[in-house]
Amino acid sequence: MIVKVCGMREPDNIRDVARLNVDWIGFIFYPKSPRRFEAVDNHLQEYRLRTCQLKKVGVFVNASVETMIQTATSFGLDYLQLHGNESPDDCYTLQKRGYAIVKAIPIASAEDLEQTVKYEGRIDYFLFDTKCNVYGGSGQQFDWNILSTYKGETPFLLSGGINPDSIEGIRHFRHPRFIGIDLNSGFETQPGLKDVEKLRTFLSAIREVKKSKKSK
C-alpha cells in the first residue's frame, strides 16, 4: 500500500514526516489552498537534496501545462496530481514528458466514476476524493462502497477525510485496483502542519494491517 502525505509546507515538519518512511510526499501549488507551498521560500530545493528517495508530488488545479512543467523542473517533482478540469490530452502531454500523472476525481455517487473512462491510458493513477464545492480539502469521507462499481484498469488511491479513526475502514476495504491512501487534514494541528506522532501511530497500525493480509 502506497502512503502519501500531502499538504506539506514547513521544512522541519517535512523532514520529520519523511523519517516515517512514507512513500510519496505532496506539495500543493494551488494559490487558493491554505496549504499552498510557497515556492519562493525554496524549501523544497533543500528537501530534494536531503530526502531524494521519496517521490515528490506537485498538486495543481487548472494550471497550464507550461506552468506545471516549469514548476516540476524547478523543484524536482516526480508526480503531478491534477485536481481541476484538466483534459485527458493535457494529462497525456505531461505523461509523455516523463511525469507520472495522478488525476483526482471527486466522488459522491457511482455516476461520478463515469468520467474515469476518458482518462484511461492517459494517466498513471486516479485519486478518488470527496466531492464538495471546492477543489479538495473537505475533510469528509465519501462512501467507499461506491467504488465497487469502478471497473477501470487504472489503479487508484483513496483520499478525503482519512484520519486516525479510519484504520478499520481501510482494513476491510477491498478492490483489485486499490493501491494506496492519501493523508492530509485528518493529521494536522493546523493547515500545512502535520502531527507527526498521530501519523506515526496510524502508519504503525496500517503496516500491521498489511502484515496481517500478507499472512493470510
Automatic annotation (TrEMBL):
Q: Which GO terms describe its biological process?
A: L-tryptophan biosynthetic process
* Entry's EC annotation: 5.3.1.24
Query: Does the record bear Amino-acid biosynthesis in its keywords?
Result: yes
> What is an example of a Pfam family matching this protein?
PRAI
> What pathway does this protein act in?
Amino-acid biosynthesis; L-tryptophan biosynthesis; L-tryptophan from chorismate: step 3/5
Which reactions is this enzyme annotated as catalysing? Answer: N-(5-phospho-beta-D-ribosyl)anthranilate = 1-(2-carboxyphenylamino)-1-deoxy-D-ribulose 5-phosphate
* Keywords, in A-Z order: Amino-acid biosynthesis, Aromatic amino acid biosynthesis, Isomerase, Tryptophan biosynthesis
Chain ranges of the N-(5'phosphoribosyl) anthranilate isomerase (PRAI) domain: 3-204
**From what superkingdom does this record's organism come?**
Bacteria
Which GO terms label this protein's molecular function in UniProt? phosphoribosylanthranilate isomerase activity
* Top enzyme class: isomerase
* PANTHER family registered for this protein in UniProt: N-(5'-PHOSPHORIBOSYL)ANTHRANILATE ISOMERASE
Q: Which HAMAP family match?
A: PRAI
**Family, per entry:** Belongs to the TrpF family.
The protein's name: N-(5'-phosphoribosyl)anthranilate isomerase
Name the source organism.
Parabacteroides chinchillae
The top of its lineage is: Bacteria, Pseudomonadati, Bacteroidota, Bacteroidia, Bacteroidales
